[in-house]
Amino acid sequence: MSLASPSPVLRQVISQRDYYRCVYCQSQAEIAGMQFTIDHIIPESLGGTNEETNLCLACWDCNLIKQNRIAAIDPQTGENVPLFHPLQDEWGAHFSWQQGGSYLVGLTPVGRATVAALRLNRPWLVRARERWVEAGWHPPA
Ligand SMILES: [Zn+2]
Domains in the chain: how many in total? Predict the structure, then answer.
């Protein structure tokens, strides 16, 4: 969450770079039917900048749930590990789709901690994904 909002141009650059998808839950703005928000990967309260390298596209729920965290507990080991960093970490190395694409699993400590902390299998989101999968819109390529 941020008080300073990125310029419309920067917002467009980031949206395009992130394929109009939430970098965390991979929801697509086009089928979610809403514009997404710009997330500070490192929150401003922890010294994160307003530069492109610290900004990403996120859905409102992921952004709200993430709050100002940069680390979380891996439910498997109990270790505190960094949250997934969308510009430094490869999504596919940390996460995998199950149940045809409606359910997300973490493959690594970072992936598992991020799935748990950001509640990436929120019941309402899983139900939406089931419809998106039926329609052939999800998961994104
Ligand atoms: Zn999201």
Answer: 1
